Amino acid sequence: MDKLDVQILNELRENARQTASEISKNIHLSVSTVIERIRKMEKSGVIRQYTVITGDSNLGNDISVLMEIAIEHPKYIDSFIEAVSGNPNIIACYYLTGEFDFMLKICCRSSEELEQIHKAIKDLEGVRFTKTHYVLRTVKNTHSSMVSPDSDILGKL
User: Is 65 helix (H, G, I), strand (E, B) or coil?
Assistant: First the structure.
């Protein structure tokens, strides 16, 4: 991976639907080179998928919360992961270090729906305690990390 790959990734991050032709014009590379580099990044796993980012409130999901979960014992981790993976309102789940074991991002339509989700999580075997943070406003929500074109890591990728 080099600086040209980073430029292509930046272009795709801004708009993954743009054509290789548009990207080639923006970064001054041939279309075939852009296509070849994108395919290599897909094959190597640098680009894992293309997706749609939805407007949660436009879909009626006006409530977003972050919920920290402490698990009693590691033997409950797999069943916890399985349970939260099946809930469509839980849109992110992170396994953590520190006082809490997991952080969930939950989006739902109402406080009643949140109460049901909250109760279901607290009822899971092994959940010791939770702490819930109501999101007032999303200030930044970047969906993938980037490598700076000047980064020393480029030669190592």
Answer: strand
Sole residue written with tokens 């980073």: 6
Question: Model confidence at 149, in pLDDT bands (50, 70, 90)?
Answer: low
How far, CA to CA in Å, does 120 sit from each of 75, 78, 125, 126? Answer: 19, 16, 10, 12
Q: Are 38 and 20 in contact (CB under 8 A)?
A: yes
Q: Which of 156, 152, 146 is nearest to 1 (CA)?
A: 156
Q: Using DSSP, state whether 134 is helix, strand or coil.
A: strand
CA angle 36, 37, 41 (to 5 degrees): 120
Q: Taking the alpha carbons of 120, 126, 128, 134 in that order, is the dihedral positive or negative?
A: negative
Tell me the per-residue pLDDT of 39-80, one tens digit each, with 9 for 90 and over: 999 999 999 988 887 777 778 888 999 999 999 999 999 999
| Virtual torsion, Cα 29, 30, 32, 33, nearest 10 deg | -30
* Secondary structure of 28-43 as H, E, C letters: CCCHHHHHHHHHHHHH
How many whole angstroms separate alpha carbon 14 and alpha carbon 12? 5
Rounded to whole angstroms, how far apart are CA atoms 19 and 12?
9
